Amino acid sequence: MMASFGHGTRRHPRTRGRMRSQSGPDRATLGIIGLVCAVAGFFVLGIVLGPVAIVCGWLAMGRSWAGSRSVPAVVAVVLGAIDTLLAVIMLAGAATWGNGMF
Asked: What is the tens place of the pLDDT at every residue in 28-81?
């Protein structure tokens, strides 16, 4: 028993499933969070939820357009960009002279 002390984990220090730290949400969860934020951004706080959806979708895609991408992540990025664009247009329209009175 003492002869194998310290040598059992020399070749494979960690198992395959534990190579990544579990400190944050995984990619599938980020994609779904981004999708929910993108859909909610059409109704309330589009100027905030749009960029949040873009960031969550981008992180869910692994910060790259190359490779395999999940559908919720791509939809979150696209809808988040639309949310942000519409919110900026609405803010620009609200800031004009007369507030749309004339």
From this structure: 889 999 999 999 999 998 899 999 999 999 999 888 877 777 889 999 999 999
**Residue 9 token pair:** 């984990």
| H/E stretch holding 79 | helix 71-94
One-letter-per-residue 3-state SS of 21-57: CCCCCCHHHHHHHHHHHHHHHCCCCHHHHHHHHHHHH
- Separation in Å, CA 78 to CA 4, 5, 56: 55, 54, 12
Model confidence, pTM: 0.69
Do 37 and 78 form a contact (C-beta atoms < 8 A)? no
Residue type, 28: A
